[in-house]
Specification:
Belongs to the short-chain dehydrogenases/reductases (SDR) family. The chain is α/β, with parallel strands linked by helices and 239 residues long. It contains 7 helices and 7 strands, in the order βαβαβαβαβαβααβ. The protein has a 7-stranded parallel sheet, with helices on both faces.
Length: 239
C-alpha cells in the first residue's frame, strides 16, 4: 500500500477526480466534505470518509489523526475545497465574502497546519493547494473571490519557502474555468448567465480530470523535485 493522501472537498468535481486517480494508483485516502454520503458512494478501497467542516480546526485535526491511525502518516494533503460566490462589491452580501475567506483561506490553513509539523519532522511530505487563475489576475465580479485566491498563492509560496529546507513540497495549482459545481454557489442569475456565455465562447472548458492529472503529475515527481506552480486552462481561454 502506498502512502496516505488527504483530500478536501472530495464529494464532487476536482476533488472526486483526484480521489479516483490516487486510489487507482494505490493510495489509501482520507476524504473530507460536508456531503459524506457522496464520499461513501465513491466506494473506493482503503478510504476513510469524514463529514468535516474545514473551517473547524479541531474536527479537521481529529479526522487526520483517525486516518493516520489506520493508514500511517499523511504524505499528501490536497486542499481542494473552495467556494466561489461571485458578486459586485457595491451590492454583494458581506456574508458571502466572509464565507469565501473562511473556506478558501482559513480552511486551507487549517489543513496545512494539521499535517505540516509531522512532515517537517520526518523530512518528507507534499501539500498541493488548488487555487485559481483568479489568484493571479482579476476578473469582473470576482473581487472577494480573487482576494481569497491571491491569498492562497501568497500563503502557499510563503510556506513553501519556510519548509523547503525540511524537504517538504508546497505546490500551487491554478486552474482556469473548469466544469464543476463551483459556479452554482453564486446567487446572481445574471452573473451565472454571463459566465456560462463566456464558457460557450471558448468552445468548452476543462474537465475535472484535467486538474487531477496535474495533481498526480506534480505529486509523482521525486521528492527532491518541487513543481512550484501549475497554471492550467482551456487553450482558448484568453484571460
Amino acid at each position: 500500500m502506498k502512502k496516505l493522501a488527504v483530500i478536501t472537498g472530495a464529494s464532487s468535481g476536482i476533488g472526486e477526480a483526484i480521489a479516483k486517480q490516487l486510489s487507482a494508483q494505490g493510495h489509501p485516502l482520507l476524504l473530507l466534505a460536508r456531503r459524506v454520503d457522496r464520499l461513501e458512494a465513491l466506494n473506493l478501497p482503503n478510504t476513510l470518509c469524514k463529514k468535516v467542516d474545514i473551517t473547524e480546526k479541531a474536527s479537521f485535526d481529529e479526522a487526520v489523526a483517525a486516518a493516520e491511525a489506520m493508514y500511517g502518516e499523511a504524505d499528501l494533503l490536497v486542499n481542494n475545497a473552495g467556494v466561489m460566490l461571485l458578486g459586485d462589491m457595491a451590492t454583494q452580501d458581506a456574508a458571502e465574502w466572509q464565507n469565501m475567506f473562511n473556506v478558501n483561506v482559513m480552511g486551507l490553513m487549517n489543513g496545512m497546519q494539521a499535517v505540516l509539523a509531522p512532515m517537517i519532522a520526518r523530512n518528507s511530505g507534499t501539500i498541493i493547494n488548488i487555487s485559481s487563475v483568479a489568484g493571479r489576475k482579476t476578473f469582473p465580479n470576482h473581487a472577494a473571490y480573487c482576494g481569497t485566491k491571491f491569498a492562497v498563492h501568497a500563503i502557499s509560496e510563503n510556506v513553501r519557502e519556510e519548509v523547503a529546507a525540511a524537504n517538504v513540497r508546497v505546490i500551487t495549482i491554478a486552474p482556469g474555468a473548469v466544469e464543476t459545481e463551483l459556479l452554482s454557489h453564486t446567487t446572481s442569475d445574471d452573473i451565472k448567465a454571463g459566465y456560462e456565455s463566456w464558457k460557450e465562447d471558448m468552445g468548452g472548458i476543462l474537465a475535472a480530470d484535467d486538474i487531477a492529472n496535474a495533481v498526480t503529475y506534480a505529486y509523482n515527481q521525486p521528492q527532491n523535485v518541487c513543481v512550484r506552480e501549475i497554471v492550467i486552462a482551456a487553450t482558448r481561454q484568453q484571460p
